[in-house]
Automatic annotation (TrEMBL):
One of its GO terms (molecular function) is NADH dehydrogenase activity. This is NADH-ubiquinone oxidoreductase chain 1. The chain crosses the membrane at residues 6-27, 76-96, 108-127, 147-167, 179-198, 227-250, 257-273, 293-312. GO terms for biological process: aerobic respiration. It is a multi-pass membrane protein. Core subunit of the mitochondrial membrane respiratory chain NADH dehydrogenase (Complex I) that is believed to belong to the minimal assembly required for catalysis. Complex I functions in the transfer of electrons from NADH to the respiratory chain. The immediate electron acceptor for the enzyme is believed to be ubiquinone. Keywords: Membrane, Mitochondrion, Mitochondrion inner membrane, NAD, Transmembrane, Transmembrane helix, Transport, Ubiquinone. Belongs to the complex I subunit 1 family. It catalyses: a ubiquinone + NADH + 5 H(+)(in) = a ubiquinol + NAD(+) + 4 H(+)(out). The gene is ND1. It is found in: Mitochondrion inner membrane. Signal peptide: none annotated. It comes from Pterolophia sp. ZJY-2019.
């Protein structure tokens, strides 16, 4: 690979990250609008035309606020955790096989699982380094939840990998040319969506920030830039999970406009769920992960493995 290729790859990576951050900005605006109309009120509508400039006003406000840090905190880790969290969330986008980006690797599913697994450490360090009991409790709950659902998420993903005999996201479109996996593997797709909600710490699984008992969870000690980075990372992962879900069971053809419309609808689903469902009890969440999804995902994995051996010549 020549230096020109590396330069082009770096430039396209920066363009992708800028586009993701702009998408995240307008996703927050959409969420506030959707929640507003669900609660029979207006969302942001004062800053700019229909409130379109509101996300940028919020960003300026957050990043220009005074940065404080708890006196007893572990200073270096406290500042490093939000940056690493956002960096990993943006790094995950490199596995999406866009025509312009060159990190279109053949092991993209393994890359996805590896980087998403690393996100757990940043949450844990953010809670621990704040040296606050509330932050630590919030981070422990978030880590336990994320690890629990990553197990079923990986097993569901393995079922898809066995069916297409590949660990590349790009190969999904070849097997969905005539019928989407949504119709063939409906139970797995529903389980994937629920696990995705738990993975991104969204309602009804937002136990890390149970306001009544944990006061916003692991990020309670963060303000201004640190809080904004954790916030951006969460919404970038929502957009990514919507994208991955569409690649998995809604065609996966990046040349089709239908895929991007589906991503918009799935992102809207993430917000709609927040405005509709109440928060679960924590023990029910763990019960669902270990006694519900894990056995079902294992059984489905063995079933599809058997099907694959049957149809192989």
């Amino acid at each position: 690979m020549s230096w020109q290729d590396l330069l082009l790859m770096g430039f396209l990576g920066v363009v992708l990250i800028i586009c993701v951050l702009i998408g995240v900005a307008f996703l927050t605006l959409l969420e506030r609008k959707v929640l507003g109309y669900i609660q029979i009120r207006k969302g942001p509508n004062k800053v700019g035309f229909l409130g379109l400039v509101q996300p940028f006003a919020d960003a300026i406000k957050l990043f220009s606020k005074e940065q404080i840090y708890p006196y007893m905190s572990n200073f270096n880790l406290y500042y490093f955790s939000p940056i690493a969290n956002l960096f990993l969330a943006l790094l995950l986008w490199m596995c999406i096989p866009f025509l312009s980006i060159s990190v279109n690797m053949n092991l993209s599913w393994l890359y996805f699982l590896s980087i998403s697994g690393l996100g757990v450490y940043t949450v844990m360090l953010a809670g621990w380094s704040s040296n606050s009991n509330y932050s630590l409790l919030g981070s422990l709950r978030a880590v336990a939840q994320t690890i629990s659902y990553e197990v079923s998420l990986a097993l569901i993903l393995m079922s898809f990998m066995f069916l297409i005999s590949s660990v590349s996201i790009n190969d999904l479109k070849n097997f969905q040319e005539y019928i989407w996996f949504l119709f063939l593997l409906l139970p797995l797709c529903m389980m994937w969506l629920v696990s995705g909600l738990a993975e991104t710490n969204r309602t009804p699984f937002d136990f890390a920030e149970g306001e009544s008992e944990l006061v916003s969870g692991f990020n309670v000690e963060y303000s201004s830039g640190g809080f904004a980075m954790i916030f951006l990372a969460e919404y970038a992962s929502i957009l990514l999970m919507s994208f991955i879900s569409c690649m998995l069971f809604m065609g996966g053809n990046l040349k089709s406009l239908t895929l991007f419309i589906s991503v918009g609808f799935l992102a809207f689903f993430w917000l709609w769920v927040r405005g509709t469902l109440p928060r679960f009890r924590y023990d029910k969440l763990m019960y669902l992960a270990w006694k519900g999804y894990l056995p079902v995902a294992l059984n489905m994995l063995l079933f599809f493995l058997g099907v694959k051996f049957l149809i192989l010549p």
